[in-house]
Each structure stands twice: as C-alpha cells, then as structure tokens.
Design brief:
With 89 residues, this protein is mainly β. It has one helix and six strands. Strands 1, 2, 3, 4, 5 and 6 form a six-stranded antiparallel beta sheet that branches.
Length: 89
C-alpha cells in the first residue's frame, strides 16, 4: 500500500442534476495494483471512496465510485492503517 503525498486539490464532480459539486481530496492510496481516492464534501465529515482509472496527472482519468462491499472493505482497511500526523496549532 502506498499513500500519495499531501494534496491541496479540489475535485469537481457533477451531481445527479448536472450541477457541479466541489469535494476535497482527503488522500489517495494504492491498494494492490489499484489507486483510490477518498473524497469529502467541504464542511462534511462524510467521505466516500472512488477508484481512479488512468493516470492521476491525466485530465482524462476517470473516478469510479466504489460500490462493491468487498472492495470498499479493502479500501477502508487501508485507510484505517494510514498514519495521519496531527497538525499542531
């Protein structure tokens, strides 16, 4: 598993009404041979996982929601193993 370094990027996705929604890229991580991103909407503690199909640096990369329970469990376990350092005030 590999954790990609700090990201200060917003990710814009279209909702079911075709309206743009901005999400914070919490972290990207590699699980096996696949790369995943954890996204959260600004001001929300809820987050969700997407699988990144293609190169992270390519604007053509596709974000695929993780809906399979087994795949989600693998991503959640990998996320739980990450060591996030507390930011000092």
């Amino acid at each position: 598993m590999h954790q990609h370094e700090d990201h200060d990027h917003g990710v814009i996705l279209l909702d079911e009404n075709g309206e743009e929604q901005v999400f914070e890229l919490v972290v990207t991580l590699d699980v096996g041979e696949k790369t995943y991103a954890i996204l959260a909407q600004d001001g929300s503690e809820d987050a969700f996982a997407v699988r990144i199909e293609g190169d992270l640096d390519d604007e053509e990369a596709e974000l695929v929601p993780v809906v399979d329970d087994e795949e989600f469990a693998m991503v959640a376990a990998a996320y739980d193993e990450l060591d996030f350092e507390e930011e000092e005030a």
